[in-house]
């Protein structure tokens, strides 16, 4: 049987990995299109900034929040809340609030929706242009897979119980 600190350590390690991969996903080129001799490389930030003109500006903010900011906040809150529990220490001040925030943001974290949308668009565009998938695409895909795995491994009841017991 796996001990609770070991189970929490797995969740933390997946959250840290996803956090680092998300930073990579927004730092590197996402994909490059080559059509008719014209080449255009784009990043996740470029995808967000594509909507920053005029009336579409609120859409740019929403895209940034749903695919970058909220997933990073969620991962950071989870790391903050669970970090001391791995070492069987008392939780940090605000750990319950941080874990609650991570849980409330779960439905709003849309990284997986973004990657599915991009994949569908790539399939449609592949016939019109040469598409080169960049390292950010693979990092983003990794974030999605790791996040799904982390969400399947986490026992929310046990974490709430541990946070309550440790805080008392």
Question: What can you see in these coordinates?
Answer:
Helices cover 70% and strands 8% of the residues. It is mainly α and 168 residues long. It has a three-stranded antiparallel β-sheet.
Layout of secondary structure:
Elements: H1 4-27, E1 31-35, E2 38-42, H2 44-49, H3 57-86, H4 95-105, H5 111-125, E3 130-133, H6 135-153, H7 156-167
Antiparallel strand pairs: 1-2, 1-3
Helix pairs in contact: 1-3, 1-6, 3-4, 3-5
Query: Which series of helices and strands comes N to C?
Result: HEEHHHHEHH
- How widely separated are the two ends? 26 Å
Let me know the largest β-sheet. Answer: 3 strands, antiparallel
- How many strands appear in the DSSP assignment? 3
Helix-and-strand structural type: mainly alpha
What does the overall shape look like?
elongated
Summarize the structure.
With 168 residues, the chain is mainly alpha-helical.
Salient structural properties:
mainly alpha, 7 helices
């Amino acid at each position: 049987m796996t001990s609770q600190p070991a189970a929490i350590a797995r969740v933390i390690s997946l959250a840290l990995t996803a956090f680092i991969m998300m930073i990579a996903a927004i730092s590197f080129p996402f994909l490059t299109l080559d059509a008719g001799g014209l080449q255009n490389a784009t990043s996740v930030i470029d995808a967000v900034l594509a909507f920053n003109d005029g009336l579409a500006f609120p859409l740019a903010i929403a895209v940034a929040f749903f695919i970058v900011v909220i997933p990073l906040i969620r991962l950071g809150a989870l790391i903050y809340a669970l970090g001391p529990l791995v070492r069987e220490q008392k939780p940090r001040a605000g750990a319950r609030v941080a874990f609650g925030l991570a849980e409330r943001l779960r439905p709003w974290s849309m990284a997986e929706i973004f990657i599915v949308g991009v994949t569908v668009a790539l399939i449609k565009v592949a016939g019109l242009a040469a598409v080169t998938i960049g390292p950010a695409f693979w990092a983003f895909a990794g974030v999605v897979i790791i996040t799904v795995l982390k969400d399947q491994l986490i026992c929310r009841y046990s974490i709430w119980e541990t946070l309550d017991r440790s805080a008392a």
